[in-house]
UniProtKB/TrEMBL annotation:
A Pfam family matched in the record: MDM31_MDM32
Native source species: Rhizopogon vinicolor AM-OR11-026
The protein, known as: Uncharacterized protein
Listed InterPro entries: Mdm31/Mdm32
Transmembrane segments: none
Localization terms from the record: Mitochondrion inner membrane
Family: Belongs to the MDM31/MDM32 family.
Length: 65
């Protein structure tokens, strides 16, 4: 009877807002996951480098005893 298209317009705006919100949440989650992965890889590389520095020294000390 009184078809103005207002409900369709509101529905479209709500859908766009919800889709934007979901994409932002997923983006933030991906950024956090990649950040954690890169932090783990960096820590692993640092620990590996430290092991390579410390192990030869400990082997020389063992030979002295």
């Amino acid at each position: 009877m009184w078809e103005t298209g207002l409900m369709g317009e509101i529905s479209q705006k709500m859908y766009n807002a919800l889709a934007y919100h979901i994409s932002q949440v997923n983006f933030n989650r991906r950024v956090k996951a990649v950040s954690m992965w890169s932090l783990q890889m960096t820590a692993s590389a640092v620990l590996s480098a430290l092991r390579n520095l410390v192990d030869p020294v400990s082997m020389q000390i063992r030979d002295l005893y």
